[in-house]
Amino acid sequence: MIKRYGRHPAILRGVGSLLAGYLKLVWRTNRFVSEPAGFYDQLRPDLPVIVAMWHGQHFMTPFCLPKGWSAKVMISRSADGEVNAVAASKLGIGLIRASGSQKAHQINKRGGMRGFIEALRALKEGHNVALTADVPKGPARVAGQGIVQLAKHSGRPILPLAVATSRSIELNSWDKASINLPFGKGGIAFGELIHVAADADDNALEQARLAVEAGLNATTRHAYELVGRDDG
To answer: In the predicted model, what is the mean pLDDT of residues 185-212?
Structure first.
C-alpha cells in the first residue's frame, strides 16, 4: 500500500514541490563561490553547451544557470525522476523525460532514443542541455556513451560541472548521493570544455568518454576543495 500510494502523481508532485523549496533554502543559506572566475563570460561564445553531471551530485546545479540563459535537463521517467522533474520545473528548468541504460534493449523502453532526439532539437534551438553522464543503476561515476554521442551529433561541447556544500549527508547509495544542507559554504566548479568531432570513430568516442569521466572527477574534487572537504 505504501509503495502504491507513494507513487501517486499527487504525492510525487507534492514531494517535488517540497524538494524545490528545500533546495532554494540551501542555495540562499550557503555562501557560494565559483571557479574559475569570470567563467560565464568566457563560456558565452560556446553556447549552447551540454552540461555533464554525476548522479547524486546534481541537486544544486539548477542554481548555476545565469539569469536569461535557457536550459533543459534530461530526467528519467521513474518515480524518483518524477520528483526531480517537478523540482526542476519549479526552479525554471525545462524537461526532457528520458534516461539511458546499461542494456541496449532497455533504451527505447526508457525513452532514450526519443530523449536523444529531443536533446538534439533543444541544442539546435539554443537551449543548454544538462544530463547525468553516468547511467543508472551504476556503476557510479562511469560515463556512458550517450553524452559523447550527443556531442558528436549536435556539434556542441560538453561542460563538466560539480557543486558541493560544506554541510551534507552522504548516502550509501549506488550513486553516492550527497544531500546538501543549509547554513554553510558552497562551491561550484566548472571544467574545461570537451569537444567531439562529427567524424569521431569508436576509438575517438571512447577517448571522449574517458575525458568526460576525468573532467567530472576533477571538477567534483575541486568543488569539494572549495568548501574545505574531500570528495565524498
So the answer is: 98
Cα gap 27→11, rounded to integer Å = 24
Q: How far apart are CA 5 and CA 12, in angstroms?
A: 10
- Phi, psi at residue 178, to the nearest 5°? -115, 120
Cα 21 from Cα 162, distance rounded (Å): 21
CB under 8 Å to 80, separation ≥6 — which residues? none
Neighbour order of strands in the sheet with 71-75: 30-35, 184-190, 158-165, 50-53, 128-132, 71-75, 94-97
pLDDT over threshold 50, residue 107? no
Computed from CA positions of residues 7, 9, 11, 15, in that sequence, does the dihedral angle turn out positive or negative?
A: positive
Lowest-pLDDT choice from 144-153, 168-177, 216-225: 168-177
Question: Is residue 105 very low, low, confident or very high in pLDDT (cuts 50, 70, 90)?
Answer: very low
Q: What is the pLDDT of residue 1?
A: 35
